[in-house]
Design brief:
about 160 residues; Four Helix Bundle (Hemerythrin (Met), subunit A)
């Protein structure tokens, strides 16, 4: 009789432990993050030459964005360092903020130029499709709101998305 109770208790503990572990896994553990959809991936009648040119432009754009992101990360780190001082030099902080603003502007100008370069490679029909797919689409980057869980205090981390 004592053995039956011990076995029942052991099974109950195993089931409870399994339920607790599966509850801790989270909602998206098995799903991969969605890949950003490029507006030019499903344009009808692209020639192989157009595809190659667009791919080359896209690769150059990715390299440039990486440089921009790295520069922005360095500026953010510099700003955090300056702000962490007991008496921060507000002139230096404002200078870093101005540099960040200039970099954001340069990033926006470069993105528009990239989009226009792609448009110039397309026929009129393809250009209409491209424009339709990029209209009203959320942009990647600074102005896109953060999706995902909030932290314990109900606020999202600083520097992520709109407020």
């Amino acid at each position: 009789m004592k053995n039956k109770w011990m076995i029942a208790l052991g099974l109950a503990l195993i089931m409870f432990g399994t339920a607790t572990v599966s509850a801790q896994r989270g909602r998206n553990i098995d799903r991969q993050a969605p890949q950003p959809r490029q507006a030019y991936t499903n344009i009808d009648n692209l020639t192989s030459e157009q595809e190659a040119q667009i791919q080359a432009l896209h690769t150059a754009q990715l390299e440039q964005r990486l440089k921009f992101r790295n520069q922005m990360d360095e500026l953010r780190a510099r700003k955090r360092t300056l702000m962490a001082e007991k008496n921060p030099d507000m002139g230096a902080v404002n200078s870093v903020i101005d540099q960040m603003t200039a970099l954001r502007g340069e990033m926006a100008r470069q993105a528009v130029a990239h989009r226009q370069e792609i448009r110039n490679l397309l026929t009129d029909e393809q250009r209409v499709q491209f424009d339709e797919r990029t209209q009203g689409r959320p942009r990647q980057g600074m102005d896109r709101p953060v999706r995902g869980p909030r932290h314990d205090n109900g606020y999202r981390p600083a520097g992520r998305g709109r407020r």
